[in-house]
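debug: dumping io for the single-chain case to check the tokenizer round-trip. Nothing else runs in this session.
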Amino acid sequence: MIIQKVIQRLNGHLLISNINHNLPIVNTIRYKSTNNDLSEHKAKVMARGLPEKKALPGVKSIILVASGKGGVGKTTTAVNLACAMKVIEPDKEIGLLDADVFGPSVPLMMNITGEPMLNDDNLIEPILNYGVKCMSMGLLVSGENAVVWRGLMVMQALDRLTRHVAWGPLDCLVVDTPPGTGDTHLSLAQNLPIDGALIVTTPQSAALQVTKRGVNMFEKLKVPIIGMVENMSHALCTKCGTVNYVFGNETKKTAEQMRLEIIESFEADQNMSDCINSGKPAIYALPDSIHAEKYRQLANKVFKYIDDKDKEQVKATEQ
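debug: decoded output
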């Protein structure tokens, strides 16, 4: 007869015994688990399941631009940030990755078209415009075709857009992520060494509620948050210059609750829509505008953040 065993948990004890009462008990094991034992076990299981983070060849820093809510100006921020970084530091190599597989907008805003070429190493050559190296699923799929993929296919596409692209040499790669807290963010955070994330939001309560979820996600993934960028914070009357908080004024309160700094705030402006539609970022189309100046300030803050982080890592290594 095959001896079967039953596991019973009684008062924190693990009891393994023979349920065939006609045969002698072959073994009895008693094990008392503690909270520390359970925590260590969970950590080991999670560690086995997570992929090893590997740097992108030739890429020094990776910055994510994210938002829980769609339509808050995240891609506009990513595009103008990347261009501003190139403008204020012309000698540095800057890249822009459009990680929004289902709704890529970078090709429109950066005015890039055409299918990318493969180099001798069978890597995709990013398309260069405004001095920024760009790659997007929108360059690989016709704009009229909808991408209808399941999670695994999205992960494979991201792998292509990251590890099968000739990014290097690159001082900083700005990654425009899709709305939400899904597979794309998990894949990027678990596979790449992310230096920090910028959280983009607008003042509406609906946007701020979802923004909190995005912040919580990055905290769980141990991705440092550089700060918040507020778009459409207010509108100015073109006749009298009165400030109108069209979408509310709750961003500051929410940022304080999450212990985050609003590192830049942009007013609503019709000219920004014109820049998006024309494929010419504000940093180039409106170089003397308040928006262009603020994007340059944002770029300086990101450069400083990367610089400080590098110094901290060097200091930690020396110790």
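debug: round-trip ok. The two ends are 63 Å apart (CA to CA).
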